[in-house]
Amino acid sequence: MCTSRYINPFTDFGFKKIFGEEANKDVLIDFLNSVLPAEDQIYDLTYKSTEHLPKNDTDRKAIYDLYCENDQGEKFIVELQRAEQTHFKDRTIYYSSFPIQEQAKRGKGWDYELKAVYVISIMDFIFDDTEEDFHHIVQLKNQKNTVFYDKLKFVYLELPKFRKQEKDLQTNFDKWLYLLNNITTFEQMPSVLKEHIFRKVLKLAEYTALPKADQELYDEDLKRFRDYVNTLDTREEKGRREGREEGIEIGEKKAKIETAKNLLSMNLTVEQVAKGTGLTIAEVEELIKE
Length: 290
Known about the structure:
This protein is 43% helix and 16% strand. By secondary structure, it is of the alpha/beta class. It is elongated, with a radius of gyration of 27 Å.
């Protein structure tokens, strides 16, 4: 049962409800225009089937895709990912190859001209902790840092790095990220989100306004989401615990080695040192060789 006023956008149901409905595509258009460069603004979108995008059973637990095309025929993949994945950047490159390949035309008349492809990744994790920037726009560039190809762009949003509070919000972009990060904590509509598009989002996301059937679907999806988060938390805690245990073992081993060296300096036999420290005879003999 949902305990917050608004549905969670990091669930499959919540993400598709807010961004994936044809009747409310102005929401997705507004969001994309806030994260894309000024020269790439969108005026209209058509939702396309995602059946040709790569699918993986493991990925489906964390990644929800939308595939769209604007009025110029340019392609947009919008995805949300809740947890870090091995080779995440590689996977986004791989994803971009599908809308490129589908543009191929049969016959000898095709001159290989392509429409632009954009991959927008909304991430609920940090994939680059070496810098403070959380909004990354990536293109192919040459050795002189000049754009080599302007029809392929990747946009990465690291939401955990966005820490602005309500009083600090200035741009539409700020407000979108604040909303995504905090919507489940809202007890009422924040006054700073007064624009029509945000009022519409909050109206779409209000749990009690959903039809009963949709509430049931969301409740099931929310349970899966919480189970998944608990699995991640358990895995992280296990990793921390194992790290602590490994650190203790390493510390104890170092202490034994230091003791063994002291005993060897006192001309004790290998057998005596091994017995006194708990090291094996082979380990003590290795210390003698050092």
